[in-house]
Amino acid sequence: MMIFTIVMAIAVDYLLGEPKRFHPLVVFGALADRLEKILWQDNRLSGIMALLIILTATVVLAFILSTMAAANAIMAWLIPVLVVYITIAPRSLTEHAMAVSAPLCAADIEQARYTLSMMVSRDTDELDERAIASATCESVLENGSDGIFAAIFWFCLFGLYGVLIYRVVNTLDAMWGYKNKRYRYFGWAAAKLDDGLNYLPARLVALSYSLVGNFSQGIQCWFEQGRYWKSPNAGPVMAAGAGSLNIILGGEAVYGGQLQSRPALGCGNTVEAEDIAKALDLLKRSLILWVLVIAILDWIF
């Protein structure tokens, strides 16, 4: 049943892509934003309270959906498929990355910068071809981990409860996890919980990226470079992915007008526009690997 749900959810995503209107995560984001306006104070306690309220509501929602799924055979497979479908988005990630790759390969730097700005939080106005390609590959590798694989991981462990709680926390981290004046304390709890929930999935993804690419380089870059990145989970994932692809990512980037010096990740060649498609292919091969492993575990247990 578990592998059936995952395969069907991936198939639905492949056929339909993300919902264009009334996406549940967009609705959730609007509700979370309203709750933030009510509870925000410049301390950790207010953020913890907001997180607990949202987690409680998520557990209630998961209970209602689980009860509905137990009502009959059709709902038993339909509800989990729909929930997993809305919590992963491999087609959307691919479309966003290719929307950068296509103009970049055609030497339309301005359009590539614009489409990249919809994927990443860094400043894109002054990026050259290499920096655009690097930022896109980083986004593909990192978002593949926390946007796709981690959701599948928690669904496999705890079903609807696991995948919904994970996706809610990950979305809150994207909204509140900034280390700026407003969110340094209010977003602390969401960011820390997201780090905890992503710890094991990220390392499984780093292993997967290595297994389906250049294994020795992926593993070496993961262990030698991953721990120096600002994020404890993005570092291993991107280092392994870059090493597996034989490219170099990382380096300086500008966020909100502030230059950040980031360590280099990976080894080998300077990243080029064509490497975006290679990063997407690495993601696809890793997803196939996960499906095969889950199918085997589902059959055994």
TrEMBL record:
<dbReference type="InterPro" id="IPR004485">
    <property type="entry name" value="Cobalamin_biosynth_CobD/CbiB"/>
</dbReference>
<keyword id="KW-0169">Cobalamin biosynthesis</keyword>
<feature type="transmembrane region" description="Helical">
    <location>
        <begin position="148"/>
        <end position="169"/>
    </location>
</feature>
<dbReference type="Pfam" id="PF03186">
    <property type="entry name" value="CobD_Cbib"/>
</dbReference>
<dbReference type="GO" id="GO:0005886">
    <property type="term" value="C:plasma membrane"/>
</dbReference>
<dbReference type="GO" id="GO:0009236">
    <property type="term" value="P:cobalamin biosynthetic process"/>
</dbReference>
<comment type="function">
    <text>Converts cobyric acid to cobinamide by the addition of aminopropanol on the F carboxylic group.</text>
</comment>
<keyword id="KW-1003">Cell membrane</keyword>
<keyword id="KW-1133">Transmembrane helix</keyword>
<dbReference type="GO" id="GO:0015420">
    <property type="term" value="F:ABC-type vitamin B12 transporter activity"/>
</dbReference>
<protein>
    <recommendedName>
        <fullName>Cobalamin biosynthesis protein CobD</fullName>
    </recommendedName>
</protein>
<feature type="transmembrane region" description="Helical">
    <location>
        <begin position="70"/>
        <end position="88"/>
    </location>
</feature>
<comment type="pathway">
    <text>Cofactor biosynthesis; adenosylcobalamin biosynthesis.</text>
</comment>
<keyword id="KW-0472">Membrane</keyword>
<feature type="transmembrane region" description="Helical">
    <location>
        <begin position="45"/>
        <end position="65"/>
    </location>
</feature>
<keyword id="KW-0812">Transmembrane</keyword>
<comment type="similarity">
    <text>Belongs to the CobD/CbiB family.</text>
</comment>
<dbReference type="GO" id="GO:0048472">
    <property type="term" value="F:threonine-phosphate decarboxylase activity"/>
</dbReference>
